Amino acid sequence: MQPFDEMLTAEGGVRQPYEAFQAWFRAQDPEVLKEKASEAEAFFRRTGITFAVYGDDQAAERLIPFDLIPRVISGAEWRRLSRGIEQRVRAMNAFLDDIYHDQEIVKAGKVPARLIEANEAYLPQMERFQPPGGIYTHIIGVDIVRTAEDQFFVLEDNARTPSGVSYMIENRETMMQMFPELFAHCRIRSVETYPADLRKSLSAVAPPACDGPPVIAVLTPGIHNSAYFEHAFLADQMGVELVEGSDLMEVDGRIAMRTTAGYRPIDVLYRRVDDAFLDPKVFRPDSVLGVPGIMEVYRNGGITIANAPGTGIADDKAIYSYMPDIVEFYTGEGAILQNVPTWRCAEADSLAYVLEHLAELVIKEVHGSGGYGMLVGPAASSAEREAFAAKLRQKPGNYIAQPTLALSTVPVLTEAGLAPRHVDLRPYVLVSDKVRITPGGLTRVALREGSLVVNSSQGGGTKDTWVLED
User: In 145-227, which residue ranges form alpha helices assigned H by DSSP?
Assistant: First the structure.
C-alpha cells in the first residue's frame, strides 16, 4: 500500500496547504538551500542543541538532524486535531482523578482492575489526594500519525515528562532566521508563545500555601540527562530558576531553593525527574536527584508538582489501548481521535495472534519510550524475532502489539532534491485553568529511506511544523 503523501497527490499535483511553499521552492537555487542546511547545522551546534544517547560511548552527545522543508498542516486539519486532542487530555485527567479516588471506571467494567493494581506506574501515595486545581498531568505530548487524507490516529500518549518542545521552538527560530521571506508570504501560526503559555499554565495551579505571585522552578536531574538542554532552555525562556535536587530542601513545611539571600519557598515545581527518584523518603532511598520530604509537603498543600506523581499510568501502553473507552466514559462522547489498533499481549488470544504474526507487527513495552525495548517485525531478523518471542512468552503483560502502519510522508531535502520520508507529530498540550494547545508541535522524521522509526535516538530528525491561518 502506497503511503499518503501530504504534499503531492497521486497524480503529482500539489495539495493546497503546500501551494505557497511549492511556488517559493521552485524559485530557489538548490546549491543555496544546501548551504542553508549547513548553516542550520552550525547554528544547532553553536546553540548546544544536542541529546544524549544512553549506552553509546562513541557519540554520547549528538545533534538532532534538522530538515529545512517544513511540514504544512491546513487550518481545517488543525481544528479537527485540536478538538480531538482537547477531548483526550480532559478525559485523561478525569481518569487519573477517578483511579486515585473511587475507581468508577473499574467498577463499571471499562478498564480491568489488574491494569491498575499491578501497574508499576500506579502510586498508592496519591490515593485520596487531589492536586491543586484538580490537575494531574499539566504538560502532555500526544503522538499522532497520519495514514490517509482524513485519517489521524493517536500512536501513544506522553503524560509524565514529554520532551522535545525546545526543538519545536528552535526549529521555528532557525527557519525564520534563514527564510524570512517565506513567513512574509505564508500565514503561519506562532509556536514561540509556548514558554509564556507554560508559565501562565503553571501559575494557574499554585498550591494553597502560595500567598503572592507564584514562584516557579524547573527541576532537572542534571547536565548528564539526555534532555538537559531542554530543561535549561525552558527555565531560561520562562524566566524561572533551573534547580537540581541538591539545591532544594524542606524548610518550615515548604520546599525551598537555595539563593544568595537564603532559602526561598517554591510554589510550583516543573519536575523533569522520574517518580522513582522524586523523594528518597518515599520512593528510592538511594536517589540523589529528588528532594527528601517533598511528597509530604505536596500532600499538605505546600507545593504543586507538575506533572503530578503517578501520572505515568495514563500513558501506560496497556491503558492506552482502552483510551477510546476512557474518553467515552468521562465525556459521554465518542473519541474524535482513534487509537491505532492494538493487541494486549496479556490476553491469551492476543498473545497467540502476535506470536504467529511477529513478522508483520510492531511490539512495544508498556512502559517503554524513545524507541527502546521494541521490535519492528518487518525490519527484524528471524533470530531477533525468535528472541523477542521468548520475552513475550515469559512476560506477556509487559507488551502490546500494533500493525506496521503506512505512515504518511512529507518531503525532505536530499542531495538529489526533494524525497518523501515518513513522519509523526507530537503536539504539546498545557492543562490548568484551561487547555492550551500549541499550533503544530514537533514533527519527527525518519531520515533513512523506507524507515518507519522517527525517534532521534534511533536515527530520526525533526522539521518545522506549520499550521496555516485560514
Answer: 165-178, 180-185, 194-203
Domain-located, residue 83 = yes
Lowest mean pLDDT among 18-22, 106-110, 184-188, 209-213: 184-188
**What residues have CB less than 8 Å from 440, skipping those under 6 apart?**
73, 78, 168, 189, 191, 425, 427, 465, 466, 467
Number of domains in the chain: 2
Q: Are residues 353 and 324 part of one domain?
A: no
The pLDDT value recorded for residue 435 is 97
Strands (E), 53-150: 61-63, 66-73, 139-148
Indicate if 316 and 370 belong to the same structural domain. Answer: no
Q: Which residue has cell 493487541?
A: 343
pTM of the model: 0.92
Model pLDDT for residues 191-204, shown as the tens digit of each residue: 999 999 999 999 99
- Cα–Cα distance measured from residue 412 to residue 276, given in angstroms and rounded to the nearest whole number: 40
Pair type for strands 409-414 and 61-63: unpaired
Q: What is the mean pLDDT of residues 75-98?
A: 97
Query: Cα–Cα distance between 416 and 116 in angstroms, integer?
Result: 52
First to last CA, the chain: 32
Residues 346 and 202 in one domain: no
